């Protein structure tokens, strides 16, 4: 299967829930939640895409970098690329059932592992959704990271410990889902967490703890102070709060405060290896990819996910060579024009 075939199959299977646009920028699907878009005006999604597009790169070719290193260590894991699979849940409602929840999580977790990296899985009002992720992770010898909704702290700890028993390499909470009505309506309250709550979760769990959905430098610092292992600078693909800035706009301010103190992951509108390099130059240690991997999963299962990841890695390698960047662990901010 090639990339073009994969996209054609995906487009048919999405049945309009994702249009598989030539440029995945949040315009055609704006407001489509449920669906694949950003909430409300869709600005959060569009701003992430546009912010990245606004950065330019310095082309450099008088140097000795001909074999850039993409391998990296993230949360103690040896990865072939600084690119991870983002958690996506609610396949039945968001993708018109293009795949079952179980098929989707398996495609992401297995496809990421095939490409030498790691994928995340989601959580939702139906208990099976979380367990579909855990089952996919178990089948891949623990190579997966479940992201739990910001439920009551003891429930988070219970689910995180279930992940640890399954051998998961880390777990997280998508703290920006703090106002998710479908959780509350299903009698499973979610909400914001205090620094003390984060400390309590960290103290009562055994595997690395990720907080996904941080957009403010001061809150990144609170996470670091609470002993959290990693943050994901993310606006949830523009699906939590309307009118949020692009993640590439806030990332340098967050990095200024916590780079080196906590692992910084980031996502939102990353569509090419050039975009990955930009995010690394702006302060991320690694990035997460959402919708492009959904297209891979729906179009070609695990193989499709691995194909999209390897395409991104190839583009990143080219961009590193053409900016004189030797190693993803040391991307200079001078890469940005
Ligand atoms: C349909 C859909 C469902 C999502 N479900 C979850 C989820 O269950 N948990 C979570 O942490 N993030 C979820 N996200 C957000 C993604 O993990 C990620 O932050 C975002 O999609 C990244 O932006 P990108 O799609 O532009 O790459 C979802 C995103 C989409 C599009």
Automatic annotation (TrEMBL):
Give the protein's cofactors: FMN
Any GO molecular function: FMN binding
Q: Which keywords does this chain's UniProt record carry?
A: Flavoprotein, FMN, Oxidoreductase
Keyword Oxidoreductase present in the record's keywords: the answer is yes
Q: Spell out the InterPro entries in the cross-references.
A: Aldolase_TIM, Alpha-hydoxy_acid_DH_FMN, FMN-dep_DH, FMN_HAD
Q: What is its EC number?
A: 1.1.-.-
Give start and end of each FMN hydroxy acid dehydrogenase domain. 37-337
Gene3D superfamilies named in the record = Aldolase class I
Family of the protein in this entry: Belongs to the FMN-dependent alpha-hydroxy acid dehydrogenase family.
| Name under which the protein is recorded | L-lactate dehydrogenase
Gene it is expressed from: lldD_2
């Amino acid at each position: 299967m090639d990339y073009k075939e994969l996209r054609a199959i995906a487009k048919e299977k999405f049945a309009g829930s994702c249009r598989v646009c030539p440029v995945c920028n949040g315009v055609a699907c704006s407001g489509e939640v449920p669906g694949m878009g950003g909430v409300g005006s869709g600005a959060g999604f569009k701003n992430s895409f546009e912010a990245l597009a606004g950065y330019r790169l310095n082309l450099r070719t008088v140097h000795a970098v001909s074999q850039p290193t993409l391998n990296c260590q993230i949360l103690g894991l040896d990865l072939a690329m600084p690119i991870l699979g983002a958690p996506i849940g609610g396949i039945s409602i968001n993708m018109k059932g293009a795949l079952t929840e179980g098929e989707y999580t398996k495609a992401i977790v297995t496809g990421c592992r095939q490409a030498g990296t790691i994928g995340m899985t989601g959580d939702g009002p139906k208990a099976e959704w979380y367990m579909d992720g855990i089952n996919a992770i178990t089948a891949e010898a623990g190579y997966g990271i479940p992201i739990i909704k910001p439920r009551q702290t003891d429930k988070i700890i219970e689910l995180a410990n279930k992940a640890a028993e399954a051998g998961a390499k880390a777990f997280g909470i998508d703290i920006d889902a703090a106002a998710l009505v479908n959780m509350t309506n299903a009698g499973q309250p979610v909400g914001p967490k205090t620094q003390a709550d984060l400390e309590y979760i960290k103290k009562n769990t055994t595997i690395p703890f990720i907080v996904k959905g941080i957009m403010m430098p001061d809150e990144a610092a609170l996470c670091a102070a609470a002993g959290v292992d990693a943050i994901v600078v993310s606006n949830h693909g523009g699906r939590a709060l309307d009118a949020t800035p692009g993640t590439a706009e806030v990332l340098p301010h967050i990095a200024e405060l916590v780079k080196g103190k906590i692992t910084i992951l980031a996502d939102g509108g990353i569509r090419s290896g050039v975009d990955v390099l930009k995010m690394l130059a702006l302060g991320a240690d690694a990035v997460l990819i959402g919708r492009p991997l959904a297209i891979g999963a729906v179009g070609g299962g695990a193989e499709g996910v691995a194909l999209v990841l390897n395409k991104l890695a190839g583009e990143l390698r080219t961009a590193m060579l053409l900016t004189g960047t030797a190693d993803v662990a040391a991307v200079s901010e001078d890469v940005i024009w």
